[in-house]
Design goal:
The complex is a heterodimer of chains A (about 475) and B (about 130). With about 475 residues, chain A is an alpha/beta fold. Chain A contains 19 helices and 21 strands. In chain B, strands 2-4-3-6-1-5 form a 6-stranded mixed β-sheet. In chain B, strand 3 and strand 4 form a beta hairpin. Classes of the chains: A alpha/beta (about 475), B alpha/beta (about 130).
Chain lengths: ~475, ~130
Amino acid sequence: MPVISNVTCPVCGSLCDDIEVVVENNRVTKVKNACAMGEAKFLSYGTHRPRKPLIRKNGELVETTFTEAVKKSAQILADSAYPILYGWSNTSCEAIRVGIELAEEIGGVIDNTSTVCHGPSVLSIQDIGFATCTLGQIRHRADLVFYWGSNPWSAHPRHIERYTAFSQGRFQASVWGRYLSRLSAYRAKQRLLRAAKLFPWRQEVSTPSESGGQLPPTLFRKERKMIVVDVRKTRSADIADYFLQVEPNKDYELLQAFRVLIRDEELDVDKVAGVPVETLEEIADIMIASSFGVLFFGVGLTMSEGKLRNIDAALSLTRDLNTRTKFVIMPMRGHFNVTGANIVSTWQTGFPYAVDFSRGYPRYNPGETSVVDILSRDESDAGLIVASDPVAHFPQQAVQNLVKNPLIVVDPETTATSLMADVVFPSAVVGIETEGTAYRMDMVPLPMKKLVEPPKNCHTDEELLQRILRQTRRTKKRRKK
Amino acid sequence: MPKLKVSLLTGRTLRQGKGKEQGKLSELYWKSVATCEIDPTDLKTLGVKENTNVKITTDYGSVVVKAVKSLRAPHPGAVFVPYGPWASIIVNPKTHGTGMPSFKGITAEIEPAPTETVLKLPELLKQQYKKE
């Protein structure tokens, strides 16, 4: 049985590169070290993938030849005046580079999924600046870990284990044991509560609200600590040393309050965002007392009210904390190569996302040249979606305007978008059926491995885009004549 | 029928992550994203039991999903729908000039809909975005 080790997982931005897989008969049959999402991808990729390219005829998607599908796509793109090229975060940097060349050729807008994810973070980083480091540094040195508006237990399942609280660093030990003892205490408490329910006259037994309560003694110890700030008690909050519950859409106030407190200034209110000021003061002291703190923030900040202004506050807080101690900040990037999409776009065009080539040169103005805004204003007249599913994740009005125009989809899976497309190319899965480069959330590039051969009619994203690009050039030349 | 004004949150769950990797047409994906996690006290106010269908309405649309009791309680007044085509129908498309729609903290109204069905993905797409 051929075992392949050190495989990089093509699911989330943590890009775990310690996966072991067993390949039998050109199929991955066993996976070791991966999380539930990673395992599901390695074992079930391509289950619903069409065997041949599809083309819409009389309202139905029917199988067609590869040449025919490329010709039809080239026609759509050559005929369009303002096409959008969207997706890119689930493919390799090499494919993204070809995508940008195609966008320039046809005068379209190329945008990646960070536009509906960490786009505001990018905007804010451009304004404020960014004190960050690699995940390796955090693993070995960080003694205070914040997850703000982020639920790594569900979205980046191995993040805590590989890089923060539960990782065994060189200078910081894992606090896994502490979590286990807390878990058994919690279970005992649950059992007691269940037992109390058997006696109806003792119904007043209730658990006190977590937020605003007394801080646990573990927060004042020297060893590693983890604090989760969120609007609801997520799974990650369960395993944290402390959970700070913020009222929805009040993150900005809370972050600014911390900025005031770490400057040793006073707040003239009793509560900020639903949290008593005394609690905030104690946490601010813990921040200052840490020797290496890190703030990981998720889309809980970028998607709620305030958007990029929330990130402004978080970045400024980190900057301010560096006058007292060492503190770094990092966005929890979602898809495995969304960071790569930003990086390739930046070194090719100068801008990380929402790049408009309609004037012949790259232009960047999120809010105007970002895909959701273009679709909401109903300005585009065709779409090319690569390795993404905007029909499932864009707001309704944007989707309506996306699907009413000709739509080309390149994806290894059948998705909501491919079901609505006019041309569908089944492609090879990056990191399983083809190799490529991807960037981890801390901007470290990692190689993706090819484990199995792709099916006969499945080409790589890079190859497919090259073919579409060449054919589009030919079609445009013919039209000029 | 009782109605309840709530704050709608959308986000990721591990089950949704697993479901999307098994395939958007898989049963697991449908079961994991066409749901709404509601606080037990809110379920009581609505007079619905777990696994009853509920209709969520916002200024931008309405959708029928299955109500499940939240394991993350207490969070009365807030409901959670995992990311997916069902949630996207009811989110706020306004980007406030940033490119980013508002996916969290949306004002919504929730009501029991025991007679309506939770649509599967192809039916939902047909109903919402019919392609000629």
